[in-house]
Amino acid sequence: MTAGSTGRSVPRLAARAADLVGSIIDSSTSLLAAQTHDIVQFAMGSPADEALPVAQFREITADTLDGAALSYGSSEGEAPLLYRLESYLAGTPDRTSQDRMVITSGGMQGLDLANKLFVDPGDLVVVESPTYTNGSATALAYGAQLLEVPIDEDGMRIDDLVDLVAREGRLPKAIYTIPNFQNPYGATLSRERREELLRLAHRWGSIIIDDDPYGLLRFAGSDVPSFGQLSPGDPLVFGVRTFSKILAPGLRVGWVDADPSLRQVLINAKQVMDTCTNVPHQYLVAEYLARGGLDAHLARLRPLYRDRRDAMLDAIERHLGDAATATRPEGGFFLWVTLQGRFAGIDTRELFEPALADGVAFIPGPALSPSERFTNALRLCFASSTPERIDEGIRRLAGTLERLSSGSPVG
Ligand SMILES: Cc1ncc(COP(=O)(O)O)c(C=O)c1O
After folding, report:
1. Which of 177, 211, 241, 246 to mutate to test the pocket of ligand 1 (most atoms within 8 A of CB)?
2. What is the CATH number of the domain that holds 326?
3. pTM for the complete prediction?
4. 249 lines ligand 1 (CB under 6 A)
């Protein structure tokens, strides 16, 4: 301890604390909860309230909450969940085996484990631009240097990746990608680019951190083969998965799918973090899977989210016209809006507060880029609101934009 300006001792932080950059996305949860007026919520990537299987979870809790569920669990995850998950995934593009899986506290812990295992201070880590900045923040927390690679509607641009790595003069230790319905852009990495990324990873000796919370939420177009299907059992692919978007984020249950040679070190890493993932919630999910509810649940969600995407695209066209363009995701939760024409000069960080006062919340573009690019863009989550509320939210946003662009007071 050293003496602060008041004469009292202040704690001396470790150097790594400076690399803990925090999350504007997560902070918006508390900010929004503190508001007392009506707000249309396009900020957080939360499932719709009506998409949460509350009644089934209540029933299952009553059946599964016993002494075993309230005790310490195994660090790798509870046996019934590992077993049920393996069976469920056998019918999906994420087919895997129990020796590759460790249950985690949501996708975030999977990202933390990936970076903890592979990233040393100063290592180069490739991220998409824009990206899910909680993921890039995790790499920063381990001292990574980030290389932002542009994306388009087919995902990460591989030609830019090769050029930027060549310019950097050293190879990336890890490549962080969100291959399906990317957060925040909504793009899906094409099959060709997945194959090229696999080839590059092998040439460079880089790990691909394949973060895919949304893959099972495709509501249009056709499936693109997963990394696991293109390169089965590839030791350079580290899969990060979660139940947060397909069941409920409050569960904090996810899993990693990684080479069996990593299993023990993953368990060791997890033991010094949280001993084990929340045990009652693992039983809850295991029993939910055992009762066979997930496929029917996903079948209900897909058209719900497709209608909401359509409602948002229609509302953008109606209220913003040619002053904005939007991506058209084939699944997931988000679309990406770029302001143009009379709104092109508006910095969405400055739009945030007046828009919140007008009753609509979003994430400004620069919060989704480690170097704060995309000042004229914003991320909108279409999943959480009904089509009527979506229309109202975009109408409010358009009103705030009009006032900001005409320079009149905003209130
Ligand atoms: C791309 C991506 N990865 C990881 C996560 C984190 O998932 P979880 O809430 O399960 O930690 C999210 C949540 O928004 C996400 O969008």
Report:
1. 211
2. 3.90.1150.10
3. 0.95
4. yes
